[in-house]
Design a protein that fits this description.
Elements (H helix, E strand, L loop, with lengths): L6 H22 L5 H17 L8 H25 L7 H6 L3 H18 L3 H12 L4 H8 L3 H21 L10
Helix pairs in contact: 1-2, 1-3, 2-3, 6-7, 6-8, 7-8
Pfam family, one: Sigma70_r4
InterPro entries: RNA_pol_sigma-70-like, RNA_pol_sigma-70_dom, RNA_pol_sigma70_ECF_CS, RNA_pol_sigma70_r2, RNA_pol_sigma70_r4, RNA_pol_sigma_r2, RNA_pol_sigma_r3/r4-like, WH-like_DNA-bd_sf
GO molecular function: DNA binding; sigma factor activity
């Protein structure tokens, strides 16, 4: 049994047959990729089919109408392309972007730096000397020109103050260990 073809399908087949070559040449002037150009021509014909009632049967006007649609399709595709992020092929730029692990470390570093800023200068100096520079209590005492007992006491209170700051910042739960 042969399927009946609607007049719209016959018209679209005729449009495709008559105008495809012109449309592909027109679109190819703006799009260098042949497959993309073919996709844009298909989009043009699809839009024409959706508005088939706007088609003027006069050949010159039909071609003009199709070229107008094609121009709009190409313009829309170009605009969409401009909004997409570009792939970077510069190896130095790619390597300078932090990886996911580095991002977590960077954020954690910023939060710790912010917490340290909230400490008194004396407590911050003891934390810097003992925990970041790895100095002993005796070395930190000599460097800071204070007795060793003062360094121990400041270190104890500085760690408690940091724990409180971390809790305020949401980095620790109350009662949790640092």
């Amino acid at each position: 049994m042969k399927r009946r073809v609607s007049p719209d399908e016959q018209l679209m087949t005729a449009l495709y047959t008559e105008h495809y070559a012109v449309l592909i040449n027109f679109v190819s002037r703006y799009v260098s990729d042949r497959h993309k150009a073919e996709d844009l021509v298909q989009e043009t014909l699809l839009r024409a089919w959706k508005h088939i009632d706007h088609l003027d049967p006069e050949p010159g006007r039909t071609r003009s109408y199709l070229l107008t649609i094609a121009r709009n399709v190409v313009t829309n595709a170009w605009r969409a392309e401009q909004r997409r992020p570009r792939l970077v092929s510069d190896e130095t730029a790619v390597n300078s972007v932090p990886s996911a692990d580095n991002v977590d470390q960077m954020v954690e570093g910023w939060l710790v730096a912010e917490a340290l800023e909230r400490l008194s200068p004396e407590h911050r100096a003891v934390i810097q000397a003992m925990y970041y520079e790895g100095q002993s209590v005796a070395d930190a005492a000599r460097r800071l020109s204070v007795p060793e007992g003062t360094v121990k006491s400041r270190a104890y209170y500085a760690v408690r103050a940091l724990r409180a700051v971390f809790e305020e910042m949401g980095m620790l739960r109350s009662g949790g260990a640092a």
